[in-house]
Amino acid sequence: MTDQDQPHWVLDTGALLAYASAGEAMGRFLADLADVGAVAAVPDLCTMEAFARLHPDEFAVLDVLLTHPVIRPFPASARTNLPDLPFIGGMAKTAGRLGAGHAAFVAMTNRAGVWTSAPDQIRLLLGDDWPIVEI
Amino acid sequence: MTSSRVTVSLPDDVAAHLATLPARQVSAYVAEAVRRRAAGDTIRAALGAAGHGDYAFDLAASSERLAGPAISDDLVTRARERWAAEVARPLPTPTAPQ
Questions:
Q1: Domains of chain A: total
Q2: ipTM of the complex
Q3: The domain that contains A123 carries what CATH number?
Q4: Which of B44, B47, B73 is the best substitution to test chain A (most A C-beta atoms within 10 A)?
């Protein structure tokens, strides 16, 4: 994996919803990523939570983002990732939300910051000093 | 992957830079640059469809805004040790992206 392929940021559920609702900071961030050829990590459980909060009429908007080269999806349930599941589950139990658990796990294992609308949950899992952008 | 031969006119300074590259690397160099701009164009199309406004292309400003977050070794170690203890098993190697 080259440095350009290594995500330095993880998009939690709230970040995906901010994109879908035209949040300016999120849009600027995604444009920046594309312009420099960088990527952001999107954990599958965050994607599922985002779809769960959108109306089906809005699904296509998220579909387009998820297939764009700036996004690196991180599966929760691929066979090769089975050892991750106890950690994601343990984090989710502590935070009270599956997406927070998966976002924090991907952030921890990739040394990446987190864009989130729930900074308290991420800090609870990764500590007060972990880089977080609240949206 | 198939390829097509394309003739373009470039400013002298750009052409001079390409001339410094090994001849067999010029096409790949140009292709990478075009792909990067294409990624910017397609994300802006996606953003536009989601109701976003326009975000100007400014590579220097983008690079500055995207400076990676500072995450110390100590911070990572503390998080990993905490979760290895809480889940009572060693952490797996980092997950591979799809």
A1: 1
A2: 0.88
A3: 3.40.50.1010
A4: B47
